[in-house]
Specification:
By secondary structure, the chain is an alpha+beta fold. It folds into 2 domains: 10-133, Glutaredoxin (3-Layer(aba) Sandwich), CATH 3.40.30.10; 139-186. It has helices spanning 19-30, 78-85, 111-121, 129-133, 142-165, 168-183, and strands at 10-15, 37-42, 97-100, 105-108, 186-188, 191-193. It has a 4-stranded mixed β-sheet with strand order 2-1-3-4, sandwiched between helices.
């Protein structure tokens, strides 16, 4: 995506409840990028009407634990940040949202894409050689990671939302695939995790 990110001043918006945003924030933490990529956190409710309007809200004062104000623009709603980049924006107002403070625009809002480039994108700014060497998307494992990502996306990340926002009878169908994938051993490279 970029050859260097040294010229960028970035912030991200996330929801503590959101598995999509959480995985991008986990990379931020593991790579020691907390000072490089600042963060604002939206409240988990209210998301909005059936079409998602007005969408995720930022906190005022201490109204929700660990939610914050919008550190970029002091916006009340996440959609206001999207409109700063594009006043005609018609897509979904989702987290995570990565904003470039220098060019004053959104650079990414796709957590799967962030997981591919974020682990190595800031290496020129990382001083600790161990953290710099940490590659969460190594070349030799990319096809396996991409394959596993399909069910993580469908059954875990999206499944949480389908179960949470679905009607009672509908949500039962999403519990089993999440449980099955979490209960069986999974393998990354030469490491096997059987919990």
């Amino acid at each position: 995506m970029w050859t260097t990110l040294e010229h960028l001043s970035l912030t991200t918006t996330k929801g503590l409840f959101c598995p999509f945003a959480h995985r991008a924030n986990l990379v931020r933490y593991l790579k020691g990028l907390e000072d490089t990529i600042t963060i604002s956190v939206v409240k988990p409710y209210p998301k909005g009407d059936a079409k998602g309007w007005p969408g995720w809200q930022f906190a005022k004062d201490n109204e929700y634990p660990d939610a914050t104000i919008d550190h970029l623009f002091d916006s009340q709603y996440l959609h206001e940040v999207y409109f700063k980049a594009d006043p005609e924006y018609k897509g979904r107002y989702s987290v995570p949202l990565l904003w470039d403070k220098k060019s004053k625009t959104i650079v990414n809002n796709d957590s799967a894409e962030m997981l591919r480039w974020l682990p190595m994108a800031f290496n020129s700014l990382i001083k600790d050689p161990k953290i710099k060497a940490l590659d969460l998307y190594p070349e030799q494992l990319r096809s396996s990671i991409d394959k596993i990502s399909i069910w993580i996306q469908r059954d875990l990340n999206s499944g949480v939302y389908k179960a949470g926002f679905g009607k009672y009878n509908d949500s039962e169908g999403f519990v089993l695939p999440i449980y099955v994938h979490n209960a069986k051993p999974f393998q990354y490279g030469d490491c096997q995790n059987t919990h």
